[in-house]
Sequence to fold (328 residues):
Amino acid sequence: MNGRVTRVSALAAVVAFAGAVLVTFAARGDAAYQHVVREGETLASIAERYYGDPRRENVLVAENGLTAQGGAPIEVGLRLLVPHVSYHRVTEGQSWAAIARRFYGDPRRAFVIVEANDASQNEQPAEGTELLIPYPLRHVTGQNDTLQRVAKAYYGNGGRDETRRLRRFNNLRTNRIARGQIILVPLEDLRLSEEGRGAIEEFTGAAPPAGESRELQARIDEELPQLLEHVRRGRFTEAVQLGNRLLGAQALTGNQIVTIQRELGTAYVALGRVDLAVHAFREALQRQPDMQLDTVRTSPLVMRAFQRAKQQGSGSPPAEESEDDSDD
Fold:
């Protein structure tokens, strides 16, 4: 009986190990990089090079299955996988659950992606948004490991929130863990340093993404209130200049495009360019067909241009225009 239990336990461990490895590879995708150890290098010096922090050697130990106790010998020629966060551009209709299933194999793990991007799980990500995907580091527990100690090793503290995060990500009912158990640790701050990205580019010919689009989208979010304020205060020329500059960023989310085009539509009407206003509203409606304008606060001229854009988008014949409609 004991032998059978041992075989079953061993099989369960193998299945868990394989599942964890598959999750890790899914998150890493084709971005895996192997560093070949050179003479004189240590885990700490390699961590310093790629992460800018020698303390990240614990990540290299875990990822490569090295022996942490006493410091594993690092031989010249040894190949070390260098894990790091990745980035994902949201496609049309993609949900948090679908993204989590793609990178982690389980839609229930979506919460770590939501948290890493300061988003809300109640609202699905906008098309075009570049998301940071935390790396699911594979940690094999040792003799004296506890979930709290694992959290402290990678998050800097073993507080209740960090421990709960590990329990939830690994679908654990309690904090109890056994020796040899695989714990996936989602790391959102495992970013490559400039030196690390440069080293990978030198070797492979291409530097890993650094979240440039994500940073640009964040800066655009900071500028959008100024665009709205220009329109609200009647600074329409300034609104057009700012709106078109933002549209030129080439890395906008769907929601950002809708907001900018909507405000441009209002500004163009005020400047007497109804044709451009209709075009702007159509661009916004293509991405958000159910978009509506406030009928109380929106001027009749703007509403007329907006309705014309909706009619053109739906293929309906345009409503009859008054003789002075072109002068709106």
Summary: Confidence is low (pLDDT under 50) at residues 1-22, 320-328.
